[in-house]
Amino acid sequence: MQTEEKATMQLEELEQVAKQVRRDIVRMVHGCQSGHPGGSLGCTDYLVALYFRIMTHSPEFNMNGEGEDLFFLSNGHISPVWYSVLARAGYFEVSELKTFRKLDSRLQGHPTTHEELPGVRIASGSLGQGLSVAIGAALTKKLNNDPGLVFTLHGDGELQEGQIWEAALFAPHNKVDNLISTIDVNGQQIDGPTDRVLALGNLRAKWEAFGWDVLEMNGNDLADVIRVLELAKAKTRKGKPIMILMQTNMGHGVDFMMGSHKWHGVAPNDEQLSLALNQLTSNMQDY
Amino acid sequence: MKKYTYTESKDTRSGFGAGLVEAGRKNKDVVALCADLVGSLKMGDFIKEFPERFVQVGIAEANMMGIAAGMTIGGKIPFTGTFANFSTGRVYDQIRQSIAYSDKNVKICASHAGLTLGEDGATHQILEDIGMMKMLPGMTVINPCDYNQTKAATMAIAEYEGPVYLRFGRPVIPVFTPADQEFVIGKAWMVNEGTDVSIFATGHLVWEAIKAGEKLAEMGISAEIINIHTIKPLDEEAILKSVAKTGCVVSAEEHNRLGGLGDSIAQLLAKTTPLPMEYVAVNDSFGESGTPEQLMKKYGLDDAHIVQAVQKVMERKQALAE
């Protein structure tokens, strides 16, 4: 029973971190009156689980990441959640979060290697490129006999980019089985619900037809996220790349932002910020 | 005029294929990717020797650029291979974000550049690639002139850290540079010293410039011919030193007049020493089907057109002096 207690405690700790990351996100976007809170809040549990529980990684960052697990954010506009998680995991000072999207900052609107921010290994923002990059990094790990895994995150709207399907064909054909990709299936994109803009159809059937091992999880239930990511890790190196379809609520954690595409790329005003922060209590310190 | 002779003709892309194998032997981190054009890119020998270091991507150039960028993470040195059109225009955003902006050590190797691709016609004959690639911050742009120089350039870029665009061609042309040459990125190669006019040529046009120089010598005109194999970074010192002596300029390239080598030189001269200048380049048009020789003639890229451009620019120089 002791191990179960430990796991429960860990989960509680992770939930506290997730609350704080959500506080960081709304404050960062409010601070510069620009950025993408909706998808960031939706993907918070996934990124917290990844960096605080799942991945083998070091905040003593080096670009090549030998022996480490690597993460690539393909839908770069949800940079607030990634920056917050990197800072909270020790990659750089949390105080730097206040520079987000401001002049002379390493925290560009979309992630870049150009400013040498620890944790970032490729620029993203123009959608659809991250899966190819992750495949390349995974191929190099194989050539180097490096046991590390490669993780990627994509938006569901991003799947409308053709390059994704080039990469989808490539990975199973080449048995890239040290790769765990995740799609944030929140059903929203800038112009409205994905079903209305350009429907994605049956994603499980599509990825399975391409030859991927497909899993599903509730991206806003930390316990489920951990369970499925652990399961995904157990399925690596068995000849197939792994795709996780992650159901999330856009804006999760802030009631008036939840489930609507309207908060895709809009900053809260002062009143909305305090409403949001009241819903996101944490025992950690704000930056 | 120095005498340049050749005993054989070869394609520059075969120089790439040979250089790639050598680079692979020298450095185990060299890997190659191709988008279904292994034969055209002459990658067969590399694949035979290093099968595990070759990635066949299929007809998916955007994916190829992304995979190449990703392969640098962990220390590989990827060489991508496809036609120049599909190496640049088709995947400009992928190169911009995942390679240039991300400062990845990818070597974008492009064959069948320019008009001399020939019969396939305008869809395959890109004439804008030098311009597109030189506009990317941090991108090195190289356009060697013959088989030996392409081989040397291919080996040199494997040793250089940073993104590179290496441009070469399809047709068989004279091999006139030494087999054991040293290729220094960014350092122009003096083909012939002269006093009356500076001809700055790149790629296939270097041999045309040599032929033009011989004709000019017969006409009593002393042409300085410089091979600008590296378009970015531009060897400004060599260019300025030459024009200080000659006072007029002809640029020669198998590329659109807009945005190519000529424009790089014009920009340099505009801010230092404005001088009479003529472009030998495609005059802002698409190409068409034909043999390489027919196209070079029709679109004004052969030795005769270089001679005409020299006569024109020297008249302008003369008029200024009077």
UniProtKB/TrEMBL annotation, chain B:
Keywords: Thiamine pyrophosphate. It comes from the Bacteria. Residues 10-175 form the Transketolase-like pyrimidine-binding domain. CDD domains: TPP_PYR_DXS_TK_like. Its cofactor is thiamine diphosphate. The keyword ATP-binding does not apply. The keyword ATP-binding does not apply. It holds the Pfam family Transket_pyr. Coiled coil: none annotated. PANTHER family: PYRUVATE DEHYDROGENASE E1 COMPONENT (PTHR43825), TRANSKETOLASE-LIKE PYRIMIDINE-BINDING DOMAIN-CONTAINING PROTEIN (PTHR43825:SF1). Belongs to the transketolase family. This is Transketolase. The lineage of its organism: Bacteria, Pseudomonadati, Bacteroidota, Cytophagia, Cytophagales.
